Amino acid sequence: MKKDLKNYLINLIFPAIIFGSTTGILTGAIVMLYKFCASHIIHLSEKGYALLKENLIFVPFVLAGLLGLSFLVVFIHKKAPNLRGGGIPTSIAVLRGIITFKWLRNLIGVFFLSLVSFLIGVPLGNEGPSVQMGTAIGSGTVSTMAKTHKAWNRYSMTGGACAGFAVATGAPISGIMFAVEEAHQRISPMIIMVSSISVLFANITAEILSPILGVSTSLFPKMEIVSLSLKNIWIPIIIGVVMGLFAVIFLNYYKLLKNLFNTHLKKIPHAVKIFAIFTVTLLLGLLSQSYISTGHEVIMSLFDGNIAIITLLLILVIRTTLTLCANTNRITGGMFIPLLAIGAVLATLIEKSLTAIFGLSGQFHSVILVLGITACIAALMKMPITAIIFAVEVLGCYENIIHVIIVAATAYILTEIFDVMSINDTVVEERFEELAVSHQSKVIDTCVTIQKDSFAVGKQIRDIFWPPSLFVLSLKHAENNNQKATKHKGNGIQEGDILHIRYTTFDEERTTDELEAIVGVQEK
């Protein structure tokens, strides 16, 4: 019993606490610094646009600068391809073991390239880069502190990704759920434990640094949300249906734009495409700030004011198109807040329609916005559970939990009926297809023996982050292992057990190294 407890503490609890807490503290500090820089850069961008409006003579000089920046961005992307596009899908691909990256280069590159996007006003957010930086910090923690414990790398990166999301959005529970519902799409005690530890320490760090840096830990200020009765249950159903159908159109529109840029406009240099997006952003920004930037201010203005329907329609169409074009051309930045802004605009249009048709009271304005944002997360990102938690945790809609569940479920079910993939899953699939095209795959069917003191000892098969596309076909217990369950080891994998596995790999040496980090070095 004492030996089991010792192994349990040394091989599971202590590493989870050490790697999780270190990753959380560092992620909390760096993401808070990042939010501080981003807020000042965005403010500087707004002042720059205001100044440029009054002095249009400087527009050609700004365009020349944007042209230079476009070529610089493409040059950096060639040196570090994983800096391209949204941070969340890149992180998911890394966490699932599909791609690898150099953590320090990625951390620094994402930090500064996303700030460039904010300065120009490209409608991308800071939550994606925060997740990607957290992932990089998690990798750096293990590679720096424990090079011989490579099997912990993806767990630490998962904790960092969750911590980055939690600090960026002010949603710690949603951050933990991100690992389960989006990153790995499965429930595991180890995933929850490492994610919870990282998120806990990241949020403590953020709370300490918040008054020092003058950066709020909350995404939105506290709002007064009216409570809906059961007789108003039709409201979330309508919002869910409209948002679900919009998500189907939106996600197919994304495919259309992706096909346009990658097929019909393939011969146009990437730098020219990015310059075109920068130029359109500049021109739209001179017309109205509502068309550009992260979208946070758009959401706040919708909560506070009354915007004309024609203006809302313009914002919806322009922000949707520009955000998707930026993402399709892999400009560095996140999609979470920009998509919430699109959801909030559509929710406001729904409210105006319901008011005109049914004479809906204006007191429902805020709750309809919240339900619209919730449906947006559930449908556009296909994260219904995270959407429900986010609505309660960040938007304060705890008195309308039934309506929140209904709107999230309705919107999500519609996307399932029409069989559309979320943007994140689409990008991850693209990364896998890129590997398949550029590398020769090999299918390996073999058996491995669990070595003494290896990472796998005492753990359940479901808890282990195996190399991608690996399936454990069978487990044969060692003859001297009677598999007597104990308080700490349960009926997990034990020394001497033989696993029959099958996997597809594009890099046999890398996959073998990753596998041996889990089961131990095999005899040749």
Topology, element by element:
Layout: H1 2-54, H2 59-79, H3 87-95, H4 103-120, H5 127-145, H6 153-169, H7 172-183, H8 189-213, H9 234-264, H10 270-287, H11 296-304, H12 309-328, H13 336-358, H14 365-380, H15 384-393, H16 401-417, H17 423-438, E1 442-449, E2 471-476, E3 498-505, H18 508-519
Helix pairs in contact: 1-4, 1-5, 1-6, 1-8, 2-10, 3-5, 3-6, 3-17, 4-5, 5-6, 6-7, 6-8, 7-8, 7-15, 9-12, 9-14, 9-16, 11-13, 12-13, 13-14, 14-15, 14-16, 15-16
Please characterize this protein's 3D structure.
With 524 residues, the chain is mainly α. The protein has three domains: 2-213, Orthogonal Bundle (Clc chloride channel); 230-428, Clc chloride channel; 441-519, Alpha-Beta Plaits. Helix content is 66%, strand content 4%. The chain is built from 18 helices and three strands. It has a three-stranded antiparallel beta sheet, covered by helices on one side. α6 crosses α8 (189-213) and α14 (365-380) runs parallel beside α16. The protein is globular, with a radius of gyration of 24 Å. The relative contact order is 0.12.
